[in-house]
Write a structure and sequence with these properties.
The chain has 202 residues and is α+β, with helices and mostly antiparallel strands. The chain has one domain. The protein has a five-stranded antiparallel beta sheet. The longest helix is centred in the first third of the chain and has 45 residues. The radius of gyration is 23 Å and the shape is globular. About 2% of the residues have low confidence.
Length: 202
Amino acid sequence: MAKKESTFSNMVLTLLLITACAALTLAMVYNVTKEPIERGRLERRQAAISFVVPEFDEIISKKFMPSDVSDSLEFNFAYKDGELVGIAVQTFTNQGFSGYISAMVGFYPDKRIYDVVHLQHSETPGLGDKIEKDKSDWSDQFRDFDPAEKDLRLKSAQGDVDGITAATITAEAYCDAIDRAYKTLKENLDEKHFSLNKMINN
């Protein structure tokens, strides 16, 4: 039997069929995994909020724009029996050793820090990953930290925060993310003279 001649049109058709099959497979995988991924993201966000503010029974979320970057921060106002008990701010920095780091920073209504927890990072295992609660107690120093009275910079830069040995860039970046959350909170709730209730209801 004669072998079918390979032509340019045959090759193009074969490539188109392979590309179409690959695209269809990717689309199917995306559709199947999209909802579980989004559900997991929301569950991690809720867990982070619960970790960095006192017990609450209602959350009201609103976004504010920091003065130094073009991406907004999400503020989650936590209420218990109608009373504001804390504000969880989803913040970030691009100054990590490996770039992007995001964190959830919780504030008391008086703007002292309740606690912090990382959300995402790609820092070096064994060094920069000490920002994680289960890897190190380094981030515990931010509990009850009052940025109005203390400096959110490393002690090596005349601030009040202990560094991470061999991971100075990561520690500086984490402080930058926390400081961005604090300054955005202060700018929107102090300098614009809005009360918390008015801010939330607008």
